[in-house]
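Hi support team,

I submitted a single chain yesterday and got back a structure, but I'm not sure I'm reading the token output correctly. Could someone confirm the output below corresponds to the sequence I sent? I've pasted both exactly as they appear in my results page.

Thanks,
R.
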Amino acid sequence: MKDTHVFYGVCSIAALAIVAVGIGYATDMLPLHKQPVNATTMSDTTSTTQSNPETPRASKGVSASKEKNCGCCAERRAKYEALIKKRRQRQKAATTAQQMASK
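Hi R., thanks for writing in. Yes, this is the structure output for that exact sequence:
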């Protein structure tokens, strides 16, 4: 008898959780669907990208005021760009080597 009460209690809690998640998805109240408070709309991003093309983050909805002034981001970006450049050179050399070998 006690086992059935526990079983029904767990089932009712699971059913309530499923209903709550369903209502959350239906009303966009879950954190997955919420937009950040400082996010801009599509019309705002087009106006900012047209007026100031030097800020690529404006088109993604991230404000430029959050950038750090320390310079470490620029260093990391430069290292990453150098890594990408080396990788592209290696791939280009590999493809030209394959083309030369196939001739």
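A quick pointer for reading it: Helices lie at 2-26, 42-51, 72-102. Let us know if anything else looks off.

Best,
Support desk
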